[in-house]
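Suppose you are handed only these lines of text.
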Amino acid sequence: MIETRGLTKHFKDVRAVDGIDLSVRRGELVALLGPNGAGKSTTLRMLTTLIPPTAGTATVAGLDVVKKQREVRQRIGYIGQGNGAGHSQRGRDELISQGRAYGMSVRSARTRAAELTESLGLGDVIDRTVSTLSGGQRRRLDIAMGLIHEPDILFLDEPSTGLDPQNRANLQDHILRLRARHETTIVLTTHYLDEADSMAERVIVVDHGRIIADDTPERLKAKHVGDKITLGFATDEDAARAARKQGGEAYGRELQITTEQAPRQVLEIVDDLRADGLTPTEVEVTRPTLDDVFLTLTGRSLREGAA
Amino acid sequence: MITDTLTVFSRELRPTLRNPFTIIISMVQPLVFLALFAPLLPKTDGGALQWFVPGIVVMSCLFGASMTGSNLLFEIQTGSHERMLVTPLRRPALLVGRALKEIVPMFAQAALIVLVCLPFGFDLHLGGALIGMLILAVFCTGLGALSYTLALASKNQEWLFWTVQQTLLFPLLLLAGVLLPLDDGPGWLRTLAAFNPLRYVVNAERALFSGDVWASTTATGLVAAAVVGVLGIAVGVRAMRRSD
Ligand SMILES: Nc1ncnc2c1ncn2[C@@H]1O[C@H](COP(=O)(O)OP(=O)(O)O)[C@@H](O)[C@H]1O
Ligand SMILES: [Mg+2]
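From them, the structure of the protein bound to adenosine-5'-diphosphate can be written out as follows.
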């Protein structure tokens, strides 16, 4: 559904996006993860025809984003970083005029607006002025606007930034349900690690305008960091002996082992050690986060960058 | 294209219509202006109003059109402009629809001004006045598109928009002889005015409002308006494509 080759955007001397090759299949849910300024928004803005690339090419639904702008626009929905609905407008009016903008008749725009209002839980506020809505309500209205014409592909730029945890969860839920129902291809950007982790089956880590990793969250963690098993022993001596048998590093009375599948392996390891008369007093399995992945890849933590 | 323009136009107009107070204010304003200015006019052959009223009409339309970008500034900041740019709406429709939203209420205003002036001896020639308004609409659409371009260029610096808008608007009005006649001005002033397209539009309005439809001023006014209209839209569309 989306193909880019060497997609690049320079703003004067800033290399916002620096040669991105991307391929997204129909029905995928992809998260672009990276710190502020990584080039996520700029990438999305090129894919949605808002700005022309400095170099490289991109096609969306098989259509070139520079040569076939109108056709691309017809096929996609875009929910930007800001608020799509005008603040002095009423929600329902905005939904209907959005439908008109996509060439829908007033009647079908009205019907569709009612459906979306219902499914996004906006019934009580849809006829109010947008400026009186809460952040979460406004964001759901933005999503409704992006969906009015039932696009094949949906782009969301930081959909949940600025929302409290409850509204974030609620929004993520809506996006996942949408996907389950319509098989929409979804590309979203986020700097929330847990969001990328829990929503996307494919995470593309972006830093300084480049893709530095691209895989499922599980494989990214396994490949770049690995799980950690920490075993506690009664004495330093036991820990050292266990290290000789099982590998890993002993620190005082603790043994640390890095592996790819800790939850399964830990049972075997404990059994083996017991057979040798070495019974661990404590067992802890630590699975890495995407932040650990980012840290390994760049030497920086995403949390600092996102703060 | 027409559907797209109507979509943008009606979206823009809706909040205004929902708030009648702003409409009343904008109606009263030129009347106050007229009431204060008209007594100062020289009592020549009774045509003072005839000369002045088209000028007032032009002025309010101009004020309206030059505001096109001010709503846009806010919508650029909030993100709703970006949202509209991603829709398949045709680019000129985004400009024209917004400009028309500022101009159409001015037509109602013009009608009101004319109605108020009728008892004071203003001589209305409906056909001419309608043609005049049409020419004015073309001119103001171009001006609105330029105002839109200015908003795009100013982006987050609101002061820039207002400074440029104010700095350009008043010389434009004065050099068109909207409020004061230029005929007695010094030569350099008249030369400058000759390069002001609004000058020709205003002349055409005066002739048309007096029922002088077949005068050559009508043609020059129309040409000047068309040039500004086409140029404004071309510049605006280009700015929209290039802005990041
Ligand atoms: N319109 C612009 N003009 C100049 N620089 C820009 C513009 N948009 C983005 N940038 C710069 O490009 C880089 C990437 O920005 P962006 O794509 O917004 O990052 P992200 O969305 O990942 O936070 C940043 O350094 C930013 O300052
Ligand atoms: Mg961003």
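What can we learn from it? The pocket of magnesium ion (ligand 2) is lined by residues A 40-41, 81, 157-158 (CB under 6 Å). Residues 2-221 of chain A form a domain with the Rossmann fold fold (CATH 3.40.50.300).
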